[in-house]
C-alpha cells in the first residue's frame, strides 16, 4: 500500500515539480497528482517507475505517513538568494533525518532535551543564561556538535549538493533538530551551530520569529555564546592588529571575521579600525575561508557511537538504511562530514532489535 505523503516528500527531496517528475517517470501529471492526494493508488509497476525516477527504493513508499518539518518554524538565512525548490529539498531531507532519529531513539537511550526557550532576553543575555545553565561560565565553548548533542539536540548534515543552504534548526514535537552545512570551514561550522542554537532558544514555537531580525538576533547570540564578553575583554587589547586577531581567534576557535565583528561590537575596535581590519583580512583570504584554521571540523559523538555500537552487533549501516526504506547514499548524506562511518553493502545483515539496551548518553 503506497502512502501518498511519501511520494510528495520524495519528490520535494529531489527538488522536482510534478511536471518534471511526470516527464522523468513517464507517468501522467494528472495521475501523479491523484497519487499524491490519495485519490487513487498507483499500481506496482507505476510505483517502480516513480521510485526509479526519484532514486528511492520502492519500500520507502510503503511506509507509514511522514510528517514534514514545520515550515513556519524554520528561519532561513539569505532566503531571497536561495530558490524555494532548494529550501524545500533541504526541509524534506530534514524529515528523513527526523525519521532516522526516531529509529535511533527506539534503540538507544539518547540525552534528554535541555534547551531553554528564552524569548524575552536580548541575545547577549540569552547566550549568557544558556552558558550558565550548561555550566560553561566564561570558558571557551568545547566541540559545538558534542555540546548540542549532550543537551538533547539532534544534529544532522545538510545535503552537500545544496551547499547554498547554510544551516537550519527546528523544533519538532518537543525535540530540537539542527542541520549543518558540513562543507564550510570548521570555525564557520561552529558559528553556524551556535547560530542555530540561538534560533532554538529565542525563536522556538513559543516565540516564533523569522526574517532579517531573527537572523540578526541569532548572529548576536552566536557571537556572545562563542566569545563571552568578559573573556574577550580579558584577552584582546583595544585596537588589536590583524596578527593579534589571528592569534586570538584560536582561543575561541572562531573565524577571524567573527572575532573582528565581536571586538567592534564590544568597543575594542573603532569603526575605522573595524573596516580596515576587515579589508586586510579579506586581502589575506579570510573572507571566504580560514587559512591555517582548525585542522578538523567537529563531528557527531552520538552518530559515531550509535553506528559503532551497531557494528559490534554486526548490523551494518546499509541494513539500517534498508529498514528505513532509504538508499545507503541517502542516509549517508544525512551524516556527511559528521561521522567517519561508511555505508557499504545492501543491507544483508540482521537488523537491530528495538531494545534501547545501549546508551549514548555522555
Give a quick summary of the entry.
The chain is 49% helix and 6% strand. With 362 residues, the protein is mainly alpha-helical.
Largest sheet: 3 strands, mixed
Helix content: 40-55%
Alpha-beta content class: mainly alpha
Radius of gyration equals: 22 Å
Tally of separate helices: 16
Mean pLDDT over the residues: 89
Q: Which spans have pLDDT < 50 for at least 5 consecutive residues?
A: 345-362
How are the strands of the biggest sheet laid out side by side?
Answer: 2-4-3
Output the helix-strand order: HHHHHEHHEEEHHHHHHHHHE
> Which shape, going by the Cα principal axes?
elongated
The fraction of residues assigned to DSSP E strands is 5-15%
Report, as a whole number of angstroms, the end-to-end distance.
Answer: 41 Å
Number of strands: 5
Protein described:
This protein is mainly α and 362 residues long. The chain has 16 helices and five strands. It has a three-stranded mixed sheet with strand order 2-4-3, with helices on both faces. Strand 3 (167-172) and strand 4 (175-180) form a beta hairpin. Helix 1 (4-13) packs across helix 5 (84-105). The longest helix has 22 residues, at 84-105. The protein is elongated, with a radius of gyration of 22 Å. The model is unreliable at 345-362 (pLDDT under 50).
Write the layout of secondary structure elements.
Layout: H1 4-13, H2 18-25, H3 29-37, H4 44-54, H5 84-105, E1 108-109, H6 123-133, H7 144-150, E2 154-157, E3 167-172, E4 175-180, H8 186-202, H9 212-226, H10 229-235, H11 242-252, H12 256-265, H13 271-283, H14 301-312, H15 317-324, H16 328-334, E5 358-359
Parallel strand pairs: 1-5, 2-4
Antiparallel strand pairs: 3-4
Helix pairs in contact: 1-5, 6-9, 8-9, 12-13
Amino acid at each position: 500500500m503506497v502512502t501518498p505523503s511519501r511520494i510528495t516528500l520524495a519528490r520535494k527531496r529531489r527538488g522536482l515539480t510534478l511536471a518534471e517528475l511526470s516527464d522523468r517517470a513517464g507517468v501522467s501529471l494528472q495521475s501523479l497528482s491523484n497519487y499524491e492526494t490519495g485519490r487513487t493508488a498507483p499500481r506496482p509497476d507505476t510505483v517502480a517507475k516513480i521510485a526509479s525516477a526519484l532514486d528511492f527504493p520502492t519500500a520507502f513508499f510503503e511506509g507509514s505517513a511522514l510528517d514534514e518539518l514545520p515550515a513556519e518554524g524554520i528561519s532561513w538565512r539569505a532566503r531571497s538568494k536561495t530558490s524555494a525548490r532548494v529550501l524545500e529539498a533541504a526541509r524534506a531531507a530534514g524529515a528523513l533525518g527526523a525519521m532516522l532519529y526516531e529509529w535511533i531513539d527506539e534503540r538507544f537511550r539518547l540525552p534528554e532535551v535541555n534547551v531553554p526557550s528564552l524569548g524575552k532576553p536580548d541575545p547577549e543575555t540569552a547566550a549568557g543564561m544558556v552558558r550558565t545553565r550548561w555550566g560553561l561560565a566564561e570558558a571557551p565553548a568545547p566541540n559545538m556538535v558534542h555540546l548540542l548533542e549532550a543537551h538533547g539536540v539532534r544534529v544532522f548534515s545538510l545535503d552537500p549538493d545544496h551547499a547554498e543552504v547554510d544551516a537550519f534548526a527546528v523544533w519538532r514535537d518537543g525535540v530540537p533538530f539542527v542541520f549543518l552545512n558540513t562543507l564550510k570551514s570548521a570555525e564557520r561550522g561552529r558559528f553556524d551551530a551556535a547560530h542555530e542554537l540561538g534560533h532554538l532558544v529565542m525563536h522556538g514555537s513559543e516565540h516564533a520569529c523569522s526574517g532579517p531580525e531573527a537572523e540578526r538576533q541569532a548572529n548576536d547570540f552566536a557571537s556572545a555564546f562563542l566569545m563571552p564578553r568578559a573573556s574577550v575583554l580579558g584577552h584582546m587589547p583595544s585596537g588589536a592588529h590583524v596578527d593579534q586577531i589571528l592569534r586570538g581567534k584560536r582561543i575561541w576557535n572562531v573565524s577571524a571575521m567573527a572575532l573582528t565583528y565581536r571586538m567592534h561590537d564590544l568597543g575594542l575596535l573603532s569603526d575605522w579600525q573595524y573596516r580596515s581590519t576587515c579589508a586586510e583580512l579579506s586581502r589575506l583570504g579570510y573572507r571566504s575561508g580560514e587559512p591555517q584554521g582548525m585542522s578538523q571540523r567537529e563531528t557527531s559523538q552520538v552518530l559515531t557511537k550509535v553506528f559503532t555500537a551497531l557494528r559490534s552487533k554486526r548490523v551494518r549501516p546499509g541494513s539500517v538504511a534498508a529498514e528505513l526504506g532509504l538508499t545507503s547514499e541517502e542516509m549517508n548524506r544525512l551524516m556527511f562530514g559528521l561521522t567517519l562511518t561508511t555505508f557499504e553493502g545492501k543491507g544483508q545483515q540482521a537488523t537491530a532489535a528495538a531494545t534501547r539496551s545501549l546508551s549514548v548518553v555522555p
